Structures are given as C-alpha cells and as structure tokens.
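User: Predict the structure for this protein chain, please.
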Amino acid sequence: MLLYSIILFAVAALLFAVGASIHRGNTKLIHDYHQENVKESERGAYGRAFAKGIFALCVSFALSGILALFGESGAAFSASLFVLFAGVIVSSVILIRVQKKYNGGIF
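Assistant: Here is the predicted structure, written as structure tokens:
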C-alpha cells in the first residue's frame, strides 16, 4: 500500500501544479478544442473554474493516498478506492459544468 500511496501523492502533486498554472491564467494547458467557443473576456474566469475541477481531483488523490496508509485491511483499501472514485466523479461533474457554461458544450 505504500507504493500505491506514493503514486497517488505524486499524481496529486502533478495535478496541483497543473491546476495552479491554469488558475493563474495559463489556459494553454487546456486543449484547444475545449476552449474554441470561450470568449476572450471570459478566459480568466474559465481558467479559474476549470482549475477547481483539477483541484478536486488533486484532493481526492491525496485523500485516497492518506487512507491507503492506514493499513492493508479490506476496509482501509475500500475506503481509499471509494474516495478516489467519488473524487473522480465529482471532478468530472465540475469539469463538464464548466465546459457547458463557458464553451457551450463538452467538446
């Protein structure tokens, strides 16, 4: 479980760095077709809203890694996976809402 936690912490750190960069306005990290219809005046708000979804994913990876450190029992592993999948679902919902609001659709 230690290796699993290390991997989750590394991915969480990477997601945090990407999310922070997008939050500061570097929307070039988001693929072009995801922002084709975003108005230039709304790019900053779009980047901050998109970063919230990335940060939610980052938190779920970190919490899942922390829970995995509590042991190799079935309960600890199940809780870790539950937090991971719940976080992925929540962040996906956030990202889809941001895309629909600012881009007019998912793609």
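The radius of gyration is 16 Å.
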